[in-house]
Amino acid sequence: MESNIDTTFLNRCILALEKANTMLAHYTTTDIEYDIYRSAVIKEFEIILEQSGKLLKKSIRPFFHSSKAVDKLYFKDIFREAGTHGLLDIEEVQRWCEYRDNRNHTSHDYGECLANNTLPLIKQFIVDARRLSDIVGKNAN
């Protein structure tokens, strides 16, 4: 695994997601604060998802014969390869693929549908994001 993967930004985003999700729970759907924190949760979800793919791609590079081979991988392939090489277990790979599917299906919907589909995933997503950060950053300087 690459030894200089910086997870600082990812970890800050995870903390922001946790805080926004905690604050969201204090409000009802009729409060404007609910809308503000819901938007923050969704945005951090999107950022963490993208950052996780980029960082994991760096982590799996040593398993490939060339950087070009890794660069050709799509998001889900990156996570499948991480599973193949023992960085993630099969359940984690499946969840990350589900997170990506959720993001793809809701990318143009910033209303109730997005909230109804994404918000229930956030608690487990935070757990998975923390674990991924630990995995990719474990050898970081």
Describe the structure.
This protein has 141 residues and is mainly α. The protein has one domain (8-137): Nucleotidyltransferases  domain 2 (Four Helix Bundle (Hemerythrin (Met), subunit A)), CATH 1.20.120. Helices cover 72% and strands 0% of the residues. The chain is built from seven helices and no strands. The chain has helices at residues 8-24, 32-60, 67-71, 75-84, 90-106, 112-118, 122-137. Helix 2 (32-60) packs across helix 4 (75-84). It is elongated. The protein starts with 7 loop residues before the first helix and ends with a helix. The relative contact order is 0.19. The mean pLDDT is 90.
Number of strands: 0
Structural class: mainly alpha
Biggest sheet statistics: none
Number of domains: 1
Helix percent band: over 70%
CATH class: Mainly Alpha
Shape: elongated
Question: What's the CATH H-level homologous superfamily?
Answer: Nucleotidyltransferases  domain 2
| Low confidence ranges | none
In short:
By secondary structure, the chain is an all-alpha fold. The protein is built from seven helices and no strands. It has helices at residues 8-24, 32-60, 67-71, 75-84, 90-106, 112-118, 122-137.
